[in-house]
Amino acid sequence: MSTRAVAPWVRTRLRAAPGAAVALAVLVLVTAFLAAAFPRALDRYQDAGLRHRIDSSSAAQCNLRLMAAEAGLDSSPQAREAALAPETMKDRFEAALRVPERPLRVDGASSAYGVRLPKRSDATDKWLSRVSPRGPQFLLTTRSELPRHSRLVAGRAPVHTPAPDAPPEGPAGPPEVVALEGTVTSATARTMRIEVGSVVHLDALPLGGKAEVRVTGIVEPLAPKSPYWSIDTTLHTPELVADRIGELSHWVGALMLPPEAGPALAGLTPSPEQFWDLAPDTDGLTAPDVPRLTSAVAALESGHSLVALREEIGETLTVASDFEGLVDAYRNARAAVDPVVAVAAFGVGAVAGVVILMAGALAGARRAAELALLRARGGSLRGMAGRLCAELAVVAVPAAAVGWLAAYLLLPGARTAASVLAAAAVALVACAGLPVRAAVAHLRPSAHSDRADTVRARPSRRRTVAELTVVVLTVGAVVALRRRGTDGGTDQLVSAAPVLVGVVASLLLVRLYPLPLRLVARPLALRRGAVGFLSAARAGRAPATALLPLLALLIALTTAAFGGSVLAGVADSRERAATGEVGADARLQKGPGKSFDARSLAAVRAATGVREVSPVGIDPWVSLPDGGDDVTLLAVDPASYARLAARTGIGAFDAAALDGGGKERAFPVLASPKAAQRLGRDKDVELRSHLLGGSFTARAVQVVRSTPAVRDTEFVMVSSAALPGHRPTALMVTGDGPDATALRAAAGPAATVHVRAEKIAAYADGPLQKGAGGVYASAVAAGAGYAVLAVLLSLLQAAPERRALLARLRTMGLSRRSGRRLLIFESLPQALLAACGGVLVGWAAIRLLSPDIDLSTLALAARAQAGVTVPDALRPDAWSLFLPALAVVGIAVGVAAGQAWWTTRRTTTTELRAGDAR
Question: What is the pLDDT, as a whole number, of residue 781?
């Protein structure tokens, strides 16, 4: 007859050590949360990066532009009118919305369709605004759903009245003048001086006829930046178009007709152009959709989707879009960012895994006698491991589930599978660490075990083979990274290279650790004091398994050094790029022919945060005597501009180099290399500036490769004394965070203001950069936290034995001060070894892997727009190397001192009770 167990194993063990169970639950919960949050954070910023890449681009880039031309004059008028009728255009638009394949979706509300003339037409009215003898040009187009996207501010909506049919005996061909009604935007009306009732006469039409458009209404766009309006910015705001010479020539705008006027455009051109501008809908797009998204766009441009569209619309249909280029740009950016982020993921993942194993090792060390007794009394390995696994699963599995749930709730809108697997992996490691270690340690029952001191331990052959395997993997990862870098995408072995370097270094230090202890212990044994010798002896008596914290600390310090250097390199790249683009803390500039007066200069100097202003006169069109390309002339204040160049590190020079010159002598100039070569050595050259209003004799005295005021151009720099009548066209501001709002108010609306701080923020504006930087910073912080936890666990593992030792020594007359020194000196060797090793390994890993780590994409969200060269190579950061290492030493010393302080205040008999660990 079987009897039920009075005290079940799991319940008994949890009640016997509730503190350890709670600590394990907290550790697993936090680790599972971080493990589950990492893939969800990646999904969120990658998805947001894809949508931002599309949404932030212009409609001309991302819209799908469908265009078709109807048959020419050989078609019957009735057929042409039917093809251009609003009902037909709407039916074709709805058909176009159904054709694109998932995940490509079209936002019908932001899309537009209509009929337009293929080319802009010249306006002949003299009362229209013009900046040159040539009059403005207008795009004549119909626009669907115009009332839905605009607000009528004056007049009425246009109405189209079809022209009466010509009698059968009448002449064939288009009428001489086509009368139409249309609307313009308020910006167009204001710029062109158009009012309600104005009639715009258009000439030079394809069929030789003329058109007169009566403006019946003025509208205000509700969302000028929406795809409906931004597909062609001249729809809402006129623009000045440059002619071949490069000067501003004429205005370009748009006259919008009612949809019913589409057939009337057939009388103005043999082939009016039908268009359907389809705006993509980015809601719901995710990073895994990129391959299918590219295929869907390719099918529209030249595949089966285009065939389906031509069946609905006509054989002349063409599809044009830069959408695929946007997706490719996102894919390339992500391919550059992902390997860098993966390095942090591998680092913090390795440290977290080691810390969880350390927690199991701590529990196994404290229960070594219990487990040995179970084996000696006939307990099987399977039964013992199963009981331990069940005991841990009761705590770890619910904690991992809570951690996953917290990540799920805090980071919504991401895929679930990867986060569930990550949390499950944490629970598996937490449940399997102690059972596996106990099974290996108690393979054979034994009454007692030999000492496994650090100094006396001898590595086995299996351990040697395992260490050599890790070394080979590390060498392979480093060689692969050096050969192809991170441009080939994310490779797990390559991303784990910094972690593997830390593992190899920890294995090497484990082998070398006994040597310094032996060397230190011998001279300390000859000294009179016992503290030094006991500290060295105690450090050597530590069990070999206590070196697991060394592995955790080295990986954590390597990851922290690598991650901190990445973040520092990103910040440095952004600083340098912004400085190169702006040239100062802020830059105020006016266009050609405009300048700052004394009042504006004084207002800028009085603005908040401004410390110094360097006025610069800029003329980009100064000819040299050799007749080559024009160079840029800079008229500067030598003293302030030299200080600016020295502060920014861009083309530093001595202000005295620009001193001298006058009516009878040539003014010294500093020139870029090519400009100096064209000016010649020791030659006086006459230079004239039309924009700055003056001329002077120049002599090149020094070559300057770059300068803050201009970039990517050849320049000549002279003192402002050479042009006494000029006024500055640019103000270079130096200060401590100058207020952009105050600067814009002081400079006036005609000035362009660039602030370095705003440029830095713009570089990090992309979700891909923001998300990757946040994940990397969080990973570094988590790795530092696990490093601290590793120090605490290593000290807690030896805490009972240390307390007992200190109590025995106190009965022999050891003072409290000496006891504190003993515990501190005992903990120092391993902390110093980890700190020094972490610094060296972190530096070596960075130097070894930096040539092939590309930080440009992570640093600069808009590097192409910046147009500057920045140092993207990863470099060691001193703070990231030494600060975590010093923190590890400080924490070890602080915990040891606290433990000694607490122990010396407890009674000796409490610490020396029978049965406690010695």
Answer: 84
pLDDT tens, position by position, 829-851 = 777 888 888 888 888 878 877 76
Q: How far is CA 800 from CA 98, 366, 913, in A?
A: 74, 9, 12
- Which residues have C-beta within 8 Å of that of residue 316, sequence separation ≥ 6? 68, 69, 70
Q: Strands, DSSP E only, in 706-801?
A: 715-719, 730-735, 752-755
Residue predicted with more confidence, 205 or 568: 568
CB 651 within 8 A of CB 645: yes
| Interval 567-604: pLDDT, tens | 888 888 888 888 888 889 999 988 766 788 888 888 88
* Structural contact between residues 364 and 438, judged by C-beta atoms closer than 8 angstroms: yes
**What is the spatial order of strands in the sheet that 715-719 belongs to?**
685-689, 694-703, 667-671, 715-719, 631-636, 610-622, 730-735, 586-589, 752-755
Q: Using CA atoms, how far apart are residues 408 and 405, in angstroms rounded to an integer? A: 5
The residue-averaged pLDDT of 145-170 equals 77
Mean pLDDT, the chain, whole residue set: 80
Please tell me the distance from the alpha carbon of residue 482 to that of residue 695, in angstroms, as a whole number.
Answer: 56
Q: What is the DSSP letter of 285?
A: -
Q: CA-to-CA distance for 682 and 700, rounded, in angstroms?
A: 7
Specify which residues 239 forms β-bridges with.
252
CA distance 145 to 136: 26
Cα gap 482→480, rounded to integer Å: 6
**Phi-psi category of 660—alpha, beta or left, where left has phi over 0 and alpha has psi -120 to 50?**
left
Return the SS3 of 268. coil
Query: What per-residue confidence (pLDDT) applies to 872?
Result: 60
DSSP bridge partners of 106: 280
Higher model confidence: residue 494 or residue 25? Answer: 25
Amino acid at 560: A
Of the listed ranges 312-321, 527-536, 696-705, 766-775, the one predicted with least confidence: 527-536
The per-residue DSSP string of 389-412 comes to: HHHHHHHHHHHHHHHHHHHHHHS-
Quick count: other Cβ atoms within 10 Å of Cβ 137?
20
- Tens of pLDDT, residue by residue over 398-407, are 999 999 999 9
Among 680-694, 733-747, 864-878, name the one with the lowest average pLDDT.
864-878
| Location of structure tokens 């720099």 | 717
Residue-level pLDDT at 904:
66
**CB 584, CB 731: distance < 8 Å:** no
Q: Taking the C-alpha atoms of 633, 638, 640 and 646 in order, what is their torsion angle to the nearest 10 degrees?
A: 90
- Distance between CA atoms of residues 363 and 358, nearest Å: 9
pLDDT at 407: 93
Q: Answer whether 0.90 is exceeded by the pTM.
A: no
Instruction: Judge whether 207 and 174 are in contact, CB under 8 Å.
Output: yes
Q: What is the pLDDT of residue 72?
A: 47
Residue type, 887: A
How big is the CA angle at 75 (ends 143 and 84), to the nearest 5 degrees?
15
% residues pLDDT > 70 (the chain): 84
Please list, in sequence order, all residues whose beta carbon lies within 8 angstroms of the beta carbon of residue 721, skipping any fewer than 6 positions away.
Answer: 661, 667
Distance of alpha carbon 759 from alpha carbon 754, whole angstroms: 8
Sign of CA dihedral 604, 605, 609, 615: positive
CA angle 507, 510, 514 (to 5 degrees): 160
Per DSSP bridges, beta strands 318-320 and 667-671 are unpaired
Helix (H) or strand (E) holding 670: strand 667-671
Cβ contacts of residue 588 below 8 Å, gap of 6+? 596, 604, 730, 731, 733, 743, 747, 751, 752, 753, 754
DSSP assignment of 80-131: HHHHHSHHHHHHHHHHHHHSSPTT--EEEEEEEEEEE-SS-EEE--TTS--S
Q: Kindly state the tokens that stand for 661.
A: 């010159």
